[in-house]
Automatic annotation (TrEMBL):
Any single GO CC term annotated in Swiss-Prot or TrEMBL for this entry: dendrite
Pfam assignment, any one: Neurochondrin
Name of the featured protein: Neurochondrin
UniProt cross-references to PANTHER family, sorted A to Z: NEUROCHONDRIN (PTHR13109)
One Gene Ontology biological process: regulation of neuronal synaptic plasticity
Family designation: Belongs to the neurochondrin family.
Amino acid sequence: MSCCDLAAAGQLGKAGIMASDCEPALNQAESRNPTLERYLGALREAKNDSEQFAALLLVTKAVKAGDIDAKTRRRIFDAVGFTFPNRLLTTKEAPDGCPDHVLRALGVALLACFCSDPELAVHPQVLNKIPILSTFLTARGDPDDAARRSMIDDTYQCLTAVAGTPRGPRHLIAGGTVSALCQAYLGHGYGFDQALALLVGLLAAAETQCWKEAEPDLLAVLRGLSEDFQKAEDASKFELCQLLPLFLPPTTVPPECHRDLQAGLARILGSKLSSWQRNPALKLAARLAHACGSDWIPAGSSGSKFLALLVNLACVEVRLALEETGTEVKEDVVTACYALMELGIQECTRCEQSLLKEPQKVQLVSVMKEAIGAVIHYLLQVGSEKQKEPFVFASVRILGAWLAEETSSLRKEVCQLLPFLVRYAKTLYEEAEEANDLTQQVANLAIPPTTPGPTWPGDALRLLLPGWCHLTVEDGPREILIKEGAPSLLCKYFLQQWELTSPGHDTSVLPDSVEIGLQTCCHIFLNLVVTAPGLIKRDACFTSLMNTLMTSLPALVQQQGRLLLAANVATLGLLMARLLSTSPALQGTPASRGFFAAAILFLSQSHVARATPGSDQAVLALSPEYEGIWADLQELWFLGMQAFTGCVPLLPWLAPAALRSRWPQELLQLLGSVSPNSVKPEMVAAYQGVLVELARANRLCREAMRLQAGEETASHYRMAALEQCLSEP
C-alpha cells in the first residue's frame, strides 16, 4: 500500500469528526452505501496490517465525509479496536518513501474518530495516550506538510474531546498537556490558536491544578499575552482583555507583567468606548487590583492619573447601574467596579507612599461618596428573597470597606440602612455555610473562576465590624444597633470565632482576618462598656462573654505573637469586671483568680529597667515583646491599668491576690532601679493609681510596700497620694 493510500485512509478520522453536527441514522447510510457492511466485515476479519490498511481504505471510499454517524463510528471501533492505532502511534519504521509521521497521523486520526464517542474519549486506552499526543503538539517538522497539519488538528480534537469529559481536565493536566499547550502557543506554529483555546478551557475547569503542574510555562504565556496586549492597536486588545484574567496566577502577578498590563489598560480606558469594549477592561483592572493592590500601577504622575481614572470610571458605572430603579444591573461589571472603588478607598486613606496627591484624594472621596449613596439606595430596595444573592453580598462588602474609613458622611442614609445590615448579618451568620459559598460566588461575578488575592471574609458580619466600631461611639447609630439586637449577635459571633483559636484548633492555618475580627469585636464591646454600661449589666450575653474572657486569657498571654489580642481581652475583661463585680463568677472563683493573674502578667511585663552606656542609673524602657507594637498597645495598656485600679475596691480578694503575685513589690523595685527622669508623667500616674488602691484596700499590701522602700520611692516620683497612704497605720 502506498503512502498516499495511508493518507487517504487517514481521512476516515476527518469524516467521523466532521459528522458531529449531523448524524443520519445507520440504515440511511447503509441504503446509500450497500457495500459498507461488507467492508466493515473485512475490517473485522483482517489478519495483518496490510489487510487492515486495505479495509480502512475501502471503508473510507465507501463512506463519504459527513456520512459517518455515532453508530457507524462505534462499528469501526469494534472492528479496529485500540491495538492497531497503538501500534501506529508507537512504530518507528515506516514503508519506503513514506515519512515516519504519516503512520502516526493515521493513528491519531483513528483516535480522533473514536473520541467523538464520549464513552471512548475516557477509555483507558485513550487516556494513556495523552502524554504521546501532547508531544505531537511541539514536534518539529515541515510547517507546510499537509499530513503533519492533519495530525496536529486530530491531536487537538482528541485532547479537546477528553477535556470535555467530567474528569478529563485532571487526566490532561497529569499527562503534561498544559506545558505542551503553553509551548505550542508560544511557538506560534500551526494550530497555536487551538492550543490557547484548550488552555482557556483547562484553566477554567481546574485553575489550581494547572498552575501547580505548569507554573513556569503558564507564566511564560502570561508574559507573551501581556506583551501582545501592550502592543495591540486593533480589536484584538479587547479580546485579550477577556483572556488575560484567566491567565493571571492565583497568588500574585509577576512584576515584569505590570507595565504591559497597565499600559494596555490605560490606552483602552483613556478612549471613548462602548460598554462592551470598556467592561472587560474594568474587569481585568479589578482582577489586578484584587491580586496586587496598587503595586501594578506605576508611581508618579501617570500612575496617579490612571488610578484616578479607574476609580472615577468605576464610580460612574456604579451610579448608572444602581440609581436607576428597574434597570437591569450587570452584576459582574458592578462587582468589578466595587473592587476598583475598594482600591480607591485604600489609596485615599494611605498616609505614606500613596499614589494619589491630596487634591486627587479629595476629588475621589467625593465621587466615591456618591457611588456609596447609590449602593445604600440599592440595598434599601433589597427584599428578603434576594438576601442570599452574591451581588447583595458584594454590595455589603464595599459598603463595609467605606464605613471602616468614613462614617461622618451619609450618616442619615447609613442609620436608615442599619436595621437591614443587622438582619442581613444575622441571616448569614446563622447560615454560615451559605455565607462562605457567597464569597466564591461574588468572585465568580467579575473574575472567574477563582477568588484572586487575599481571601474575602466569608461572613457579612466581619465585613461590617470596622464600621460598627466607629458607629457605636455615636449616640444615634449606637441606639439603632442596640435596638436591632447587634450586641447580642456580636457576642455570639465573638464566642464562635473564639472557638477557632481555642486549644485543639491549629491556629497557624487561621487567616489573619479571624484574629483581626476578634480584636475589632473587643473594640466594639469597649465602646459599649463606656457608653452603655447599663446594657452590659442587664444583657445576659455579656455574662457569657465575661466567662469566656476569664477562662481564655491565662492561656492567651502565654502564646507568642498574640500580645495584641491578649491586650484587648485583658482590658475588656477588666472594664467589664467593674460593671459585673457583684456577679458570683467574680467572687474569687478559680476562673476569676486565673483571669486577674493573667491580667497582672500583661500589665506588669510591659516595662523593664535598661542600662544606658556611660550612666550608672538605668532607664525605664519597653520590654522587647511590647516595643514593636506599643503604638497599637499603649492605649489598651493605660485603659487596663485604670480598669484594674477600679476593680480593687470592688473585689476584696483582689488586693491579697495581687500581693501574692508580688506585682506591687516588683513595681516599686522597678521604679527604684531607674532614673525618675526616664519615667513619663502618665506612667507615674498609672503606677500610682494601682499602688494607692492596693495600699488602701489591704494592710498587708501597705506593709509590703513600706518594706520595699515605698515611701522613699513615692517621694522621688512625687506620688503624694501614695506617700500619704503609706504614712498611715
